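User: Modeling request: complex.
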Amino acid sequence: MSVAHEIEDRLDRDVDWEKLKAIVVFMVPGLTLFAIFSVGPMAYSVTGSFFAWDAFDMQHFVGLDTWVATFQDDSIVNWENMKNLQYPMGALPQNLIWMLVHVPLSTLLGLGLALLFADLRGRRILRSMVFLAFTTPTVVIGLVLLFVYDPQAGVFNELLRTVGLEGQVRDWLSEPQYAIYALIIGGVWVQTGFSMLLYSSALAGIDPALLESARVDGASRYRRFRDIIWPLVKPVTAVVVIMGMIWVLRIFAIVYAAGGPSGGPNGVYSVLGLEVYTSAFSIPIEYGKAMVVALVELFIALPMAWYITQMD
Amino acid sequence: MTDTPSADDGSDDTTTPPRTDGGTQIRRDVPDTAPTEDRDLGTRLRSSLPSAPRAARYGIAITIALLWLVPLIGLFMASVRPLGEIIQGWWQLDPLTITFENYEEAWEFQSGPMRQALINTAIVTIPSVLAVTLLGTMVAYPFARFDFPLKSALFFTLIIVMAAPPELIAMGNYNTLRETGLFDTYMGLILVHVGWGMGWVVMFLRNYLLGLPEELEEAARIDGASRYQIFKSIVLPYSAPALVSVAVIQFTWVWNAFFFPLVFMRSQENQLAPQVLPLMKGRLQIDWGLVAAGSVLTMIVPIVLFIALQRYYKQGMVAAVAD
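Assistant: Request completed. Predicted assembly structure:
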């Protein structure tokens, strides 16, 4: 029997044509949109990052030129200021600093609040109160932060006045060296609700009898946490940390609302997303640079997303 | 022990009461007889009050939760008071003038009236949520149940898209929409939202469907039901809770979305509500009342939805990342 015959034979035997038709009918409409509006543009960005651009039109192949130029661009990485630890350091280091400060804080606070609320009456209401900020549009969050740090009408400066630190009252979001931390605190305020929610649902899965018997056996609060609670919430911590990092990596509206498209005075709290937007859609239009920066974001996020899907 | 029931007020988490402290009693067996009045009222009242450390925990918990709300309370207070009083601090309650002028002003805001912006947001949000939920289920069903060529390629593509920032697809879509004449139209933005949402929706529903038993579908198959009938009368109804979760989360996401409208909607009459808010800041002195009123108008819809459907929202959030 010839090879062609054999293949034909196998196709007839193994392939359920009716089933294959059903699969196609089910999947084609959704996957078409997915291909045109998600996968296609991503491939376009990957390709485009190696080409020269005239506004929105692709020109000739330039290899890694755009990549190299992007990493020498002061708005992305400001090597000089980084050496002196001065802001603006560029969007990439600033985004990473944001991650480094934000993620541990929101994770620990989330775990703390989840433990605190775990067995209280009315915990649903308490949790919702903390979670509410997470359901608020991020652009509103940015404006709220602007309001909170306002020198006159802001509640944060009023707090400083109340505790006797009048000298410290200022517009925190215009202070080049502090502004990013002021915003990070706002980000933590929002994201703690999310990590608390994940931790709460993990804590709910712990058998209370286990904790009870440990208590009866005389295990201290700390021992009970370390030996019973922690091993069970550890996998959630990985998810909380990674989701926090991805959330920070994608941060855009908060910064835009608080500091405009430039990301604060001189871009002192600019982030990668903002650089993509300004490169691509404000004059001068630098499509190639925008694509490189967006791809840098993807490269940072990809291993983390991969790790999450590989967890059991 | 009988008068301190471990009643669970939050059945939103699991079927078993989520107790973790071990600091209080656990009632597992139902007694055969009703509790007898073996103690007088005073003793019972005293023992049903929380102990001192527990009361302290309540105090701390409530304080923190309220503290968390302070910025949002401030926003709300600013939205109903005149600018003169906001500048003095929204926490100053003397004098307290309640006014709806800020809302009227935001409603008719000249470079993007909320009246129009909110309608635009609804026009974009509702169809994109419905479409992504339906089309996403249709993709997820064969993805979870059958083998087909390129299945693992699809899986990896989904992961990459889920990891990608929305900025990565902005440039390609900008050019696509320009060329097809869909730029700055409702349809263009809806299509981008549907295509972009497909990634996580398919992954989420696939994981959900993998957890559903296949027996029912097989039985229906043996009874001669077609694959379309099975999808309509078994798969859809059984995945209803997951579909509600998807719809609620996607609704919040699309409604709150700022980046896509900013890029794909340019003309003033097409602007979406989140887009208008930064414009309200103005140039010099920020009119906090106006900004706050606009913000409250924008966030009221997702917050009401969250309060009404929080069970689905939270379940979805947990499932979406836990899988």
